[in-house]
Write the structure tokens for this entry.
Amino acid sequence: MVLLDSTVLSVAEPDLASSLHTSVTGLQWAANSYTVVFAALLLSAGALADRLGADRVFRAGVALFALESALCALAPNVTALVGARALLGASAAACVPASLALIGRLYPDRREHARAVASWAAISGAAVAAGPLAGGALVGVAGWRAVFLVNVPLGAVALALTATRRLRCQRGDRRLDWPAQLTACAALALATDGLIAAGAASWSHTAAALAGAVAAGVLFVRLEKRSPAPVLNRALLGTPAVRAGLAAGAAVNFALTGTLFVLPLLFQSRGMSPTATGLAFLPLTVPFVVNPPLTGRLVAKTGPRPPVLAGLVLLAAGSGVLGAAAWAAAPYIWSALGLLLAGVGISLALPALVTAITTAAPPGAGGAAGGLLNAVRQAGASLGIAAMGAPLTAGTDGPWAFAVAASVCAATALWFQRAHPKR
């Protein structure tokens, strides 16, 4: 549910815009209100699960996710939808780390735990891949509201399947720094708002939002320095290889989510139905399902550096092809080629990045590194929607949006290469 919701809305954008009479800016916030809150709260959601008990946090998160999905489906206007999606992002953040903690409780044996986490990752990847297809099918049958209503029965099933005493967890005493956490959320939201306003050429709004983001960032750093329970693991951020890996994770989600935001609007402006638009994304999504086992073997043989670099280069190339196809109004086959290159690139980079970051992390910080990677990836998704949607808001066509994605991925590939020298 959580990861499906990060991509399923993309194909519903034209129907949503028509139904709620909103602009590209409204669509950007409908998508971003979820990922902004999700990204920021992931930083502390693991600590919350440790403090209150992972089983309680998980069940509360799932129940609220289903309820808030129903609120999204009933939203009478885009403002109400944005607010409901923000609540949905908070519930999503509660679910993800708690679900991994519960898997650890169910499978204490190291080998069984590794297989269970691999299954969790495969299902998560399949959910991301299925988003455009499921969205297209649901919108084609019942409109954009069906995209959210489907979460209600899924949530009920998840609660029923986890109603067992085997999952009960003790409460802990881990501390949470809520002022720093909320400041991080504000910084990300203001930076996103500034990029969206820039696309609309509202320069005073842009300046105010970006100034607020900088101020919130400075305050966050000060709070972190004084905090006895900092949100970020300082040892992680002091490692150049980890910083480059986090940047690569953000770049991948920047390009992926931005593409999923921009391309449906372009496809459906050219007469594609929602169902056809969902099917048009198959070249992007199929590699998510097929490639991870191959990538795992490649990482075991060569280490994470070659797959990450190859993935970023392919993603930059795919974005370039998509931009050229949009500029020339080329037949779909060229867009399919760009999507295929991007899909193979993402399926190479993401699994390898987990290994790259956890192995580069200081001893005992592997779990924190994985959690930080998830948070940074969601932040990258928020910024991708804002930055790649800005050219559409400004009235220009898709090529500039994909040029932004290609530049970000190429620059990050160079950074990662320098931080991970060949051995």
The radius of gyration is 20 Å. The chain has a mean pLDDT of 82. The chain has three domains: 1-164, 177-228, 232-423. The longest helix spans residues 110-142.
